[in-house]
Design the sequence.
């Protein structure tokens, strides 16, 4: 099976710090891959590189067989990769529904200056996505006043509205209380599996990783230091000591 | 709801000149300013202030003068259409690189270009008439040359129709995906890019439309006054346009016209009563609105309206 | 060789000096208070008017030499009258608000000051070139130079160096730098940020008025002066990079020389030059010669 995302020897340095030190990995369709590693090991930089927010000094990123290394975020998004952010990136001053509708409209084509954004078709589609992610009740609330967990879900809803084939999630459960983490991930993973979306998620909570990931990639100093199935990786003494700091 | 306000505005505007004839001229000028201010308001939605929109106002005005003098165009509608298209084209070209800038730098570059245009208009005497400007003869209407009095009535009605048409069209634009995306640029441009939307493209489209609006406003002004001068491109005019947009309120399309009516009415009355203070009155009104009515006069009207229908 | 160009150099530096006073004040205020003050030009105009009035009074009383002091007294008066008052009231209400709104507030202030100026000084042009005459001329290498121009250059240097010393060495200067770097942090270590803002703004007003006072012997002072100078000051500040004092120095010199060169070679287009330079610089370096902006972290 061909990988949906192939990364070869990605490198970049910021002011003396090597943020990406030869990243090599393959992600296969329909996988749920977790990315773990200490803070500052370059996980978010990796997401930035994959989505064109920054461009590597060398190396390549290929999506569905086509290179995307030098493309900007908007083109990469149109190719089928969507991203949910560590700090939820929502549109302040708008309701959750409006944010998702904008994403729906973006997918159908933003170059429409005549028909209203809030048309029935888009509204319906947006509601569907919100319902899938259990956000139906807060659809009309302003994003600014939502609690953190719902803001994260809203961010993911926006990303899902783009009907991506690959979804990149940056710490989906950070800032969410322990009691809410499992229901949150159950919801998200349920939708991912149902819609057959491949996903990569950066995570710090090892319970979440163990419970939901098909595969785990361990980051250390800007590269993939270890990879494997959760129970292999998370119980390896080497990984635990070097990366997670338990020894 | 917006349509209702536009209709009310139109009715008031239509009746007022009949009730008080000399206000007709003021109304026409106000529509000219209002259209240009609407252009500024559109860009303000995306967080971009153009403190150089007088450029397009002047391009539209001088386009009318040049079309009459050099291209032998005399028909009012053709002049308006021509000026609007020419100005939109200029906006399209300038917009091509303007969209790379944001915030203060966008404002600065717009300002710079408008001042270059101002100084060129002032200096290129043989082309532009220099600081004296150019006269604009009374255009023909549907082939007929009217008396100035009759023409003024036609102008007022034309201004009224154009105001309503522009208001309705731009209202649609702002509620469409392309228009809503403008607002999204202001709140989270990065997120918009991550939706697959080109922020630059969205701004470029709005910039071109806003230039066209200002051009039409300038054309109306040129015809109404019968004269064009380089001062139409001066930075204080740009400042007035932003002032009118904010004073009126950028929350909705009627705001720009409400602000423009206010400006022109104050200017007209203040000159009669206390000529040297009309700038100060406008300045203080602006400060009052900024501190106490951040949504502008239109926002105030909307709030009063909501309270009327929802007395709680 | 150089001697051939000396007149051009002196003219250019003198022009640059006059621009520098206004531009550095604008830049200083922007870097500390983070507001682009449209009314900055109005202070320039008040400085000019007041200097002419005071100078004329002294001349009338038979103390022509004192008219020179008018050049310094006038900006001090303007700064004292307007600086703290405006900062404490108008500006303080705008802190934390969006940039757009802040500029509009200063625009509103500008409109009010324009009319105030007309009410106080009337609409007829004023002129008083006594200070310039008093200083006479010097003959260098066969060419006559106005000593006034040389004074301007020297004063600009003095102001520039003093400002730098003030900001880098003095206690108040370090407070200002701290507030500029990180206001919240500065407050937590006990720096009186409101006082810093007031001081910085007042210095800015002083510099603008000084520019106006020093320019007054060389120009006709009339309504519209403030509007004319503020847009030029904006151009210079933008070229140098907003908030960058070194940038203001460089940009002033650049504009001073290009303007003077235009007067020598293509006088008709002298007014266009600053704005053409501005467009050219901004296209190549959108944030000005010394400005910069970082990529947002997500």
Sequence:
């Amino acid at each position: 099976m061909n990988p949906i995302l192939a990364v070869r020897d990605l490198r970049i340095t910021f002011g003396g710090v090597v943020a990406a030190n030869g990243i090599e990995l393959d992600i296969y369709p329909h996988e749920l891959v977790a990315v773990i590693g200490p803070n500052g090991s370059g996980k978010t930089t990796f997401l930035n590189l994959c989505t064109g927010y920054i461009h590597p000094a060398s190396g390549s990123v290929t999506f569905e067989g086509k290179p995307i290394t030098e493309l900007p975020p908007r083109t990469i998004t149109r190719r089928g990769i969507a991203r949910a952010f560590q700090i939820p990136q929502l549109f302040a001053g708008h309701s959750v529904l409006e944010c998702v509708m904008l994403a729906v409209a973006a997918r159908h084509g933003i170059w429409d200056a005549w028909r209203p954004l809030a048309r029935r078709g888009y509204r319906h589609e947006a509601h569907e996505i919100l319902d899938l992610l259990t956000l139906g009740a807060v659809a009309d609330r302003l994003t600014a006043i939502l609690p953190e967990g719902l803001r994260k879900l809203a961010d993911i809803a926006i990303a899902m509205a783009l009907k991506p084939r690959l979804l990149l999630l940056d710490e989906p459960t950070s800032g969410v209380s322990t009691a809410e983490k499992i229901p949150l991930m159950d919801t998200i993973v349920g939708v991912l599996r149902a819609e057959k979306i491949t996903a990569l998620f950066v995570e710090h909570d090892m319970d979440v990783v163990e419970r939901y990931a098909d595969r785990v990639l361990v980051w250390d100093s800007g590269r993939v230091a270890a990879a494997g199935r959760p129970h292999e990786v998370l119980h390896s003494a080497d990984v635990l000591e070097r990366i997670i700091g338990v020894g | 709801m917006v349509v209702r306000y536009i209709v009310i505005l139109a009715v008031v505007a239509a009746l007022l000149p009949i009730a008080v004839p000399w206000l007709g001229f003021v109304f026409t000028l106000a529509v000219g300013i209002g259209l240009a201010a609407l252009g500024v308001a559109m860009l303000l939605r995306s967080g971009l202030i153009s403190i150089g929109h007088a450029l397009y106002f002047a391009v539209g005005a001088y386009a009318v003068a040049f079309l009459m003098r050099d291209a032998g165009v005399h028909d009012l509608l053709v002049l308006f259409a021509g000026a609007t298209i020419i100005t939109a084209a200029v906006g399209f070209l300038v917009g091509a690189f303007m969209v790379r800038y944001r915030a203060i730098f966008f404002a600065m570059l717009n300002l710079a270009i408008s001042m270059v245009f101002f100084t060129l208009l002032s200096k290129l005497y043989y082309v532009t008439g220099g600081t004296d400007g150019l006269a604009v003869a009374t255009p023909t209407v549907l082939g007929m040359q009217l008396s100035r009095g009759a023409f003024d009535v036609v102008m007022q009605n034309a201004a009224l129709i154009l105001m309503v048409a522009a208001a309705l069209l731009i209202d649609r634009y702002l509620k469409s995906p392309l228009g809503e995306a403008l607002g999204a640029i202001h709140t989270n441009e990065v997120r918009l890019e991550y939706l697959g939307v080109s922020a630059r493209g969205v701004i470029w489209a709005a910039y071109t439309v806003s230039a066209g609006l200002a051009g039409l406003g300038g054309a109306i002004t040129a015809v109404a006054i019968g004269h064009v001068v380089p001062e139409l491109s001066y930075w204080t005019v740009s400042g007035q346009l932003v002032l009118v947009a904010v004073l009126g309120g950028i929350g909705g399309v009627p705001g720009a016209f409400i602000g423009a009516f206010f400006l022109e009415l104050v200017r007209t009355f203040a000159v009669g009563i206390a000529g040297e203070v009309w700038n100060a009155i406008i300045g203080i009104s602006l400060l009052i609105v900024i501190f106490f009515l951040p949504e502008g006069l239109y926002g105030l009207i909307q709030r009063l309206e909501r309270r009327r229908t929802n007395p709680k | 060789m150089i001697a051939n160009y000396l007149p051009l150099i002196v003219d250019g530096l003198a022009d640059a000096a006059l621009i520098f006073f206004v531009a550095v004040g604008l830049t200083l205020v922007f870097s500390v208070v983070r507001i682009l003050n449209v009314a900055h030009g109005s202070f320039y105009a008040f400085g000019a008017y007041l200097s002419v009035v005071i100078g004329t009074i002294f001349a009338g009383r038979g103390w022509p030499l004192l008219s020179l002091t008018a050049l310094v007294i006038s900006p001090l008066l303007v700064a004292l009258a307007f600086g703290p008052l405006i900062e404490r009231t108008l500006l303080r209400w705008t802190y934390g608000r969006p940039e757009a709104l802040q500029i509009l507030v200063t625009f509103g202030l500008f409109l009010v000051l324009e009319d105030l100026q007309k009410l106080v000084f009337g609409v007829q042009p004023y002129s008083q070139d006594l200070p310039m005459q008093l200083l006479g001329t010097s003959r260098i290498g066969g060419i006559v130079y106005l000593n006034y121009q040389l004074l301007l250059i020297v004063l600009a240097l003095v102001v520039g160096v003093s400002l730098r010393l003030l900001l880098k060495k003095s206690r108040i200067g370090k407070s200002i730098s701290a507030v500029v770097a990180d206001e919240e942090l500065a407050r937590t270590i006990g720096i009186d940020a409101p006082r810093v803002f007031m001081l910085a703004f007042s210095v800015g007003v002083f510099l603008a008025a000084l520019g106006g006072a020093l320019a007054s012997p060389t120009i006709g002072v009339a309504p519209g002066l403030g509007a004319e100078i503020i847009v030029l000051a904006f151009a210079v500040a933008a070229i140098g990079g907003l908030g960058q004092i070194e940038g203001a120095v460089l940009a002033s010199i650049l504009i001073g020389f290009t303007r003077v060169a235009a007067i020598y070679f293509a006088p008709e287009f002298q007014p266009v030059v600053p704005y053409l330079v501005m467009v050219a610089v901004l296209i190549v370096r959108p944030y000005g010669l010394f400005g910069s902006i970082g990529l947002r972290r997500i």
Remarks:
- The longest strand of chain C covers residues 137-140.
- Residues 238 and 288 of chain C are 6 Å apart (CA to CA).
- Chain C is about 75% helix and 5% strand.
- The mean pLDDT of chain C is 86.
